[in-house]
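Structural prep section.
Before we set up the soaks we want a predicted structure of the protein with pyridoxal-5'-phosphate in place, mainly to decide which crystallisation condition to try first. Input record follows.
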Amino acid sequence: MSLPEQGLDASAIASRLADLRADDPPVHGGRVLAYVYDAGMPEATNAALDALAGFGEVNALDPTTFPSVARLENDLVGWGLDMMRAAADAVGLVSSGGTESCILAVLAARERWAAAHPDGRPVLVMADTVHSAFHKAAHLLGFDVRTIPVDRASFCLTGESVRRALDELGGRAALVVASAPSYAHGVVDDVPGIAAAALEHGILCHVDSCIGGVTLAYARLNGEAVPPMDFTVPGVSSISLDLHKYGFAPKGVSLLLFADAAYRMGTYFAFSAWPGYPVVNTTLQSTKSAGPMAAAWAMAQALGDSGYRTAVRDARAATLRIVAAIDQIPGIGVVARPDTTLIAIAAGPDRSVDPFRLADAMRARGWSLQPQPSCADLPRTLHLTVQPVSLATVGQFTADLAAAADEVRDMPWIDASQDLEGAFANLPDLTSGNGLPDEMAGVHALIDALPPEVRDPALLAIFSTLFTARR
Ligand SMILES: Cc1ncc(COP(=O)(O)O)c(C=O)c1O
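Run finished without errors. Recording the tokens verbatim:
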């Protein structure tokens, strides 16, 4: 960017920014079924966006200078503890997002483990379907990882398999993670069995409910039978719950809740042996905007309990209608019955529909579903984050899904494994500024075909072409 010699006025800036957004998909309306969460309540969204702007310049680094920061954080944590039915002495913190909450949960476990084990590397025990945030945490914080396959019929991590792994690991395991639910398949793990195994071995158990916390809490209040996953389950020591997902807040806000205040202390950092101001950080960031937490607070106030109950009821109703429709479409099926509002679509046993081709055919009809490549024996799938607003579009969506499946049924699967070099050579130019091409099946098939050890380096190489800025 070269700066204009004379600064632009507000309307010129708004129009330039609108141009920059021109190729982005819409964040409202339910056509994009990943990354975005639309409660379908525009007045509440506007209240949240006003709060985001109003608090954007408040520095949440220092709640002694800006007391509003502690008030907002305490209110949000209190709400989260209530949703997760914590005991009176439970505590929490607000972070910038799910990944930061997961990393902080792992950090807290490392501090506790290291106090008792001065030597050696701790082990993080988790399902092969766990969110990648925990692999990132292990990478950053010096953990070895023990991944356990989920049950291949239910896609659930069982307590029994965790118990066996903990028996084998002896004292090396520091933390076990259960998902509620898993992002990829939308299944809540066997939290009671996993937490019981952790208790028996004297280690911590984190429940990753980043994406499901709000929906599970309000589905329960709506009278649905939800799988046990909160602090009423003995042995659950921490829970992550994102407000920028089904809390419907703008991006940048998540909760990390702890059954025990001593455990939270492991995430805090203080340093005063330098000549500047004494630093006390409750998260990875230091200077940070109070905007996202003010926005989450505003959203919660604008929706109220009844707003969340309605939002979750609508999203669940839409989810169940979509599943019922998928059950009727030949060649595809759901990987598992959704425990919340996430659906994974896979090919049926006859493999007549390639999920990646289906994604392109849906894209041509104006819907964005998220391709998930195969992983060891887990098949390629399409992920759907179903939202409250989806209830209004469910008829059109399911009609389009049936038509898209008809269009691609019996077409050969896109398979790049025979000609990886050719597939690389045909990659679209992601730097062209024209957005993604209409047909992405080839790109996903290439990722799918790459051997595991080259997948991540290849993804990094492709991604880095997007960031080309030079002086
Ligand atoms: C279960 C789960 N954990 C962690 C995360 C990471 O959250 P974020 O993308 O906010 O960092 C996600 C994101 O979808 C998730 O679904």
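Observations: The pocket of pyridoxal-5'-phosphate is lined by residues 97-99, 102, 131, 133, 179, 183, 208, 210-211, 242 (CB under 6 Å).
Flagged for discussion at group meeting.
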